[in-house]
Amino acid sequence: MSLEDLEDEGRRAKPEPVRERAGADTKPTLKTIAEMTGLAVTTVSRALADAPQIALETRMRVRQVAEQIGYLPDRAAQRLRTGRTNVISLVLDPHEEILGYATSMIRGLTEALRRTPYHLVVTPHFSDTPQIDPVRHIVRNRMADGIIFTRTEPSDPRVKLLMENGFPFICHGRTELATAHPYVDYDNYGFAYQAARKLIDAGAKKLSIILPPERFTFAHHMRHGFMTAVREEGIGFEIARGVTLDSNSNDIRDYFYRRMDEPERPDGFICGGEVSALAVMAAAYDHGLALGKDVRLVAKQTSGLFDQVRPRVETIYEDLSEAGLLMGRLLLKRIAGPVPVHELQALQTV
C-alpha cells in the first residue's frame, strides 16, 4: 500500500461526519467526494472501482457518499482513460406474447450488475428493421462493453458479426452455427414434449400447437419436442397455420374459433405463452366448450397471471428473471477476460 493510502487509512481511523456539499446545483465529482470524506481523489477513484487494495470499510463509505450526492462517473473521460464504457446494452424486440418479458429479464440483469461499475442500457429493435442494425451500430461506435440480445435465428448474423469482431456478448437462445458461442437458453424442446405428454395423459385425442415464427431457432426446438411426443403415442396432431406466437391475440383467437367450428377439431392445445393461451381459452368459451373437459390446454407461464385463472390451467414455468441473471453474470465473466466458450453457456431445464 502506498504512503498516500496509509495516510488515508489513518484519517479513516478517525472518521469525520460527512460534510454537506457546497453548491448543490453543481455536478458532483471525485473531488467532491474526496472533500466530503477526507480521502485523496485517487483513493476515491480506486474505491469506486472496487479495488481490493482499498479497505472494504473505505469502499463502502465512498459508495455511500457517492449515492447520497448523486455522483455519476464521467463516461467520456472514463472511456478515454480505460477504453471501456461501463455499459451493457440489452437489445430488445418488443412483442406482446410473453407477458413481462422485458421487465423480468431486466430484473435479473440489474441484479447481476449490482455492485459493479456497469450500467444497463436498453436498445429497442423493431421487427420492420434488420436485427443486425442496432448491434452493428453499437459495435461500430463502441457504445458498450458487451451486448445481450434475444430471439436468435439458426444462422444468426448478429452472432457472426460479434464473433468476427471479438466483441463480448451473450444471446438468449441458441443458433445452429458450427462455431460454439455464448448463450443462455430455455429448453423449448423439453417444454413442448412435456406439454404434449401432459395432454395425452389427461385424455386428449388430437393435439394442436402454435409455434413461434419459423425463422427463430426455438421454433424448431418446440416443433421437434412436440413431434417426438405425438409420434411416440401415434396420436392425432396439427400445427396451427397462418398464425404464430407473434400474431395479434385477436387473430389467434379468431383462428382457433374457426378451427373449433370445423370437423375433427383438436381437443388439446399447447401454447408457448400466456397471451396465446388466453386467446385459445376465449375461443373455447365463445363456443361453449368447457376447459378441462371439452378442451385441454398447457401453457408456458412467465408471470403469475395463471395463478389467478379459474378453472386452473396446466402450466410449465420459464424463469426469465433467472435467465437475465445468468446472462449478466456470464457476460461480466466474458468481459473480464478470455473464457472457454462452454463456461459461457447455460440451458434452463423444464
Could you characterize what this model shows?
With 350 residues, the chain is of the alpha/beta class. The chain is 44% helix and 15% strand. It contains 13 helices and eleven strands. Strand 6, helix 10 and strand 7 (236-239) form a beta-alpha-beta unit. This is LacI family transcriptional regulator. InterPro entries: HTH_LacI, Lambda_DNA-bd_dom_sf, Peripla_BP/Lac1_sug-bd_dom, Peripla_BP_I.
Describe the structure using short key phrases:
350 residues; alpha/beta; six-stranded parallel β-sheet; five-stranded parallel β-sheet; 13 helices; 44% helix; transcription
Topology:
Blueprint: H1 3-13, H2 30-37, H3 41-48, H4 56-69, H5 75-82, E1 87-92, H6 101-113, E2 119-124, H7 132-141, E3 146-150, H8 157-164, E4 169-172, E5 183-186, H9 188-201, E6 206-210, H10 217-233, E7 236-239, H11 249-260, E8 268-271, H12 274-286, E9 296-301, E10 314-317, H13 320-336, E11 345-348
Parallel strand pairs: 1-2, 1-3, 3-4, 4-5, 5-11, 6-7, 6-8, 8-9, 9-10
Helix pairs in contact: 2-3, 3-4, 6-13, 7-8, 9-10, 11-12
